[in-house]
Amino acid sequence: MPSLPALPWTFAIAVSAISLLTINNKYLLKHCGILLLGFAFMAYQVNQHLAAQLPEELDGQTATIIANISSVVEVGADNKLSFIAEILSSAHAVGAWPKPGRIKITWEQPAYTPQPGQQWFLTVKLKKPRDYANPGSFASERLFFQQRIVALGYVLPDSGNQLIQESRVIQNINKLRQYLYNKIAAGLGSKKFAGVMIALVIGNKNLITAEQWRIFQNTGTAHLMAISGMHLGIIASIVFIIIKIFWRFAPVSFLHIPAPWLAACAALAISLIYAVLSGLSVSTQRSMIMLTVFLLGTLWRRKISVLQKFCLALLLVLICDPLVILSVGFWFSFLAVGFLLYAFTGRKLETNNRLSPWRWLRPQMVVAIGLLPISLLFFAQTALYAPAINLLAIPWVCFLVLPLSLLGAVLLLLNINSGIVLLKLAD
After folding, report:
1. Of 244 and 166, which is predicted with more confidence?
2. What whole-number distance in Å separates Cα of residue 319 and Cα of residue 154?
3. Which end of the chain is more exposed for a tag (fewer CB within 10 A), N or C?
4. Mean pLDDT of all residues in 52-59
């Protein structure tokens, strides 16, 4: 990676950028200031991440660590576990690791399955994240860098591996995600689309088989497995419509509360819960921000343009995590929405017939053509018949599979058998 400005220079650039922003009536200088401020912010974030990476002298060494599990514990073949943890302290025979950060841990056949939020004392073999040398292989090092994972760890058999502290309250969301993961995986068992159900409910895709991914990619339907605006929009719309209908039968004493206001509050709350439950991926963050801006406009009775919502979502996502630009999903997510905005915002529809096939096929064609170059760049392939397939797959997944899956997940918390029945029906 090319060298970045040291921390003092980064602060100097930030100060210069702020100075340019204070200049009145100099739009060019202000734009330069915004660019410099963004560069300084990115340089600071990258420098902080590089400072936390595993030192060269510890690569391949054994260390004892105290780690707090901060993700869902994924169960693979032969009871092989993998999870992300925050290193609280470490001890090793050689070298020093002054600022240990997030580490991805693999643990084969543990006697006890760890849970999110627990603190563990573990003996692990550490190594730096690396790419394969084979041309065209998956860029795992870039993925780990974007996820701020500074090292990989393999738990070694040791009698000292033990639980130190039970789950913390701050990890309650991950505990709930873990509970749903375990119950859905156990309840659906050998069902073909168990991994798809888990992906739609909690955003975890590790149980989707390689063959299923190949089919999704070849048919252009892989985007349905990423919780995005389509998923959140459907859930918000369903909640909004249900609240408005039921509010008609509310007691007269409650009717001073406008139905649209109450429906917008409920839709926003349910959508936020679903977004957090699904793990807040890039597409989910973008969609949740845009949905929040739209619903807040309804609550405050303010009209906000679609372009303003799009730009605000892009800005907030980059502020929350500037390293997200390394994610392929970031580019696909925002470019797809950008092409749709360009194609439909402020343009008159050629037909008002809502049942016209072209009216529904046109958005798929816009996205397919717009994302064609980036698909070829990242994957060296594209699905030419994806628009036609999505015309059938999107309504099927969004209006049938997704609502049944989420309703089944809610019932799992109340009555496991009823929840499993709905999930099997969705499958």
Report:
1. 244
2. 33
3. N
4. 85
Q: For the segment 399-419, what is each residue's pLDDT rounded down to a tens digit?
A: 888 888 888 888 888 887 877
Looking at this protein, which amino acid is placed at residue 98?
A: P
Name residues whose C-beta falls within 8 Å of residue 108's C-beta, 6 or more positions apart in sequence.
78, 79, 80, 81, 155
Q: Phi, psi (5° rounding) for residue 65? A: -130, 155
The pair of three-digit structure tokens given for residue 426, joined into one six-digit string: 């969705």
Question: Tens digit of pLDDT for each residue in 336-369?
Answer: 888 888 877 766 665 565 556 666 667 777 777 7
Alpha carbons 55 and 96: distance in angstroms, whole number:
8
**Rounded distance, CA 150 to CA 154, Å?**
14
With residue 124 as reference, give the H or E element that holds it. strand 119-127
Helix (H, G, I), strand (E, B) or coil at 301: coil
C-alpha distances in Å from residue 204, one per residue of 184, 400, 405 = 12, 20, 14
The Cα 122–Cα 66 span in angstroms is: 6
For residue 414, give Cα distances in angstroms to 72, 187, 288, 419: 21, 15, 27, 8
Structure tokens at 131: 């790419």
